[in-house]
Write the structure tokens for this entry.
Amino acid sequence: MAADHHTVDDGGEGLPLPTTIASGAVAAAVLLPLVWLVRTALNVGLDGAIAISTRPATVQVFLNSAALVVVVTAASVLIGVPFAYLTVRTDLPFRRGVTVAVSLPLVIPSYIGAFAFVSAFGPQGAFQRLLAPLGVERLPDIYGFTGAALVITLYTYPYVFITTRAALKSLDTTLIDAARTLDHGRWRAFRRVTVPQIRPAVTAGSLLVALYTLSDFGTPAIMQFDAFTRVIYVEFTSFGRDVASLLSLQLVAVTLLILGLESHVRGNEPLHAGQQGGRTGGTVRLGPWKYVAFAACLAVAGLALLVPLGILLTWLARGGAEVGNALAFRSEYAINSVGVAVGAALVATVVGLPVAYLAAGYRSRLADAFERATYVGYAVPGVVLGLALVYLGTSYARPFYQTVYLLVAAYVIRFLPQAVGSMRASFLRVNPALPEAARTLGRTSFGAFRAVTLPLIAPGLLGGAALVFLTTMKELPATLLLRPSGFKTLVTHIWTATESGYYGHAAVPALILLGVSGLSMLVILSQEGYDVK
């Protein structure tokens, strides 16, 4: 394997056979749960399917979800890209601390963030009680589209920030200096030189934001906003699987549409800058504006971090008396959470490597199809994926049913795009002349990959694995449906405590969840390629 970039025919002739077989197997495994969706949807019949798909309520759900995806993705780009540029290319004060603070909202589950915002800013929330002495009896309603878009944006923009920041750090600024010598202004040089170089990373992060928005269940449910996921859950619990499976197939169709649009935006050009000893200096002086930029970064990060932390600490202080062993927190819950998250991150990185390599190195419809297939599982709501795997496990893979292996498989199917997108962007930045030179010196193709390409893409591997770890730690619906009997994690304990109304007993595992996820983010940010200096 090497990071060469080839054009092959649409049939895939010329693709490396072992890598192609491995990528095809991964794509098939990811698409397998859709068999259950199609099977249950067929039970409705063509006339029933058309009637359900065209009814006004279904159309409104589609419009709601589409609007939410567009607004959240656009807002995440408008936040993530400038913040990445500020922390890499400017003299922003305390760049190390700002980078960490701006990245940390990613560790907070959106459903915890949503509940915290409702508790803080709801009509009768904590913030209203603070303002009550001033005569404020009620705050504007936070429920609905506005609240859902705000919360999801605050906890997903780091996807764009992290991927864009990694691309900016590997950018050779001598290219920008060359543009400036040709009488390009700073903005024109950014638009013509920097933007094409970081576009794959920005679109990879944007795609993750869009798909997360489509698949998020907790935030729309808490904000009482009828997105696909909330309505699917209601159908599952109220009217049966047939209608829910049809809505889930519509959700998959929307995902495929987003993937098609993304392929026209991101580009597929190899980006080699920064891999040949290029200079990455040239700090941009902001002057007095650096304090405004610093305040803007802290305002966004502070809103995303301090609100849930404040609410959780309030819950902790009001925990009340113990209610018996059923809600007693045990350290094994944290160990279980970390164990399955590490397993999912390792498996996703390994199985995603051939997919990312083909997608970056070969311009082929087959390679593109394999890559896009991996994104389908990310858009299927966790509750739907969990039920699909329950069906597959009980029908065709009983030895794996009610085991940790099936649970880890669900995590990998759900979050594989996070690893693939990060690795693909790293492959695109590897100059193919480098592994080619290693082969001319007697290295095998695999030897050249291991000695030359792998060290260069290591930041992408590490970043992708970190994202899988973080999102696995937070995943709730699939964990509830697929965990083995007696296997409890932090999120399942949080769910049990909050469902029972004992919020004080949810505070400890929630804070541990945030602490473990935050620590993992700090470790990743300190590594090469995610250096915050």
